[in-house]
Design a protein that fits this description.
Layout lengths: L1 E3 L2 H20 L12 H9 L2 H6 L2 E8 L2 E10 L8 E9 L8 H15 L4 E7 L3 H8 L3 E11 L5 E10 L5
Parallel strand pairs: 4-5
Antiparallel strand pairs: 1-2, 2-3, 3-4, 5-7, 6-7
Amino acid sequence: MIERLTPGAFADAVPDLAGLLVDAVAGGASVGFLAGFDHAAATTWWRERAAAVAGGSLVVWVHRDPHGITGTISLAYAEKPNARHRAEIVKLAVHRAERGRGLGRKLLATAQEQAAASGITLLLLDTETDSPADRLYRTAGWQRYGVVPGYAAGPEGELKACSFYYKTLGPGR
C-alpha cells in the first residue's frame, strides 16, 4: 500500500526511511550520497526534511509491507512565485529486495497523479544516465532534455553522467 505521510507519520517513519536510503546507496543508486553512508547519517538527512514536510513544500509517499517501508518517492514543490506550476520528483527509492516488481513505477504514478491534482503542470527530475531509474523514466513517458557528463559522483566516488527529464501534466496530456 502506498501512503502519503503526514508530518507526524513522517517523523515516525524516519528510521525506516533511513534504512531504505542506506540500502539504496549500498546498492549503487546515485541518490546524492557516497559509499559508507550509514543509518545515523541517513536519519539526520531525513530529519532535516521534517520542516519542509510540515510546511507542505515536500510531500513524501511510502510503500509498506509487513517488514516495513520498501519504497518511497517525494515531490518537492517550487517556492518561487513564478514557479508554482512546477515541482520536482526527488528520492525515488525501492529496496533492493523489491526491485523489478513495478513498485518504482507505481510510486512514480502516485506522485504524478497527486502533482496533477494539486495543480502542477510541469514535473522535473534528474537521474544517473543509463541507470535502471533512467530506463524507468524513459519508459514512463518522461522527456529527456539533456545529459551532463560528470555531473555527480556515484556511491563509489566515480563521476557519472546525469540525465535531466521533464513531464507535462494536466488537461489533454
